[in-house]
Amino acid sequence: MKLKIYYHHTDCGGVVYYANYLNFLEEARTEFFVQRGFSIKELADNGTMFVVSRQEVDYKVPVFYGDELEIITTVGEISAVKIVFENEIRNQKGQVTTKAKTILVCVDKNLKPKAIPSEIRSKFSQ
């Protein structure tokens, strides 16, 4: 996913505010689903939702107003009920600015763990 950094992403020093990375990662995960033919909203409407159970972020190089980023999203692991997403964020110079790992757990409408549907598992394992 490509992303341009705007003023509202930054703090008073012109550096991307650390918590905004969580939004970037969420958007990248959503695009990952979309690129494989899944709508997060449609899945939720049909009783399959994903919640973040763990988030790790390593900030390597600051990102500034006006930078253009590429967010690379991969699945590091998938089990019966969880997906481990790994992200690498690079700036326009190709520098790795950020590495992240997000663990999502599949839940039903009552927020109880449920098996990840087989069609998701198969498309995410490729």
Characterise the protein shown here.
With 126 residues, the protein is of the alpha+beta class. The chain has a single domain (2-117), classed as Hotdog Thioesterase (Thiol Ester Dehydrase, Chain A, Roll), CATH 3.10.129.10. It contains 3 helices and 5 strands; from the N terminus they run βααββββα. It has a 5-stranded antiparallel beta sheet. Strand 4 and strand 5 form a beta hairpin. The model has no long low-confidence stretch (mean pLDDT 97).
Topology:
Elements lengths: L1 E3 L15 H16 L4 H6 L3 E11 L8 E11 L3 E9 L5 E12 L10 H7 L2
Antiparallel strand pairs: 1-3, 2-5, 3-4, 4-5
Q: Which strands sit side by side, in order, in the main sheet?
A: 1-3-4-5-2
Shape: elongated
Helix content: 10-25%
Described by strand count, sense and barrel closure, the largest sheet is: 5 strands, antiparallel
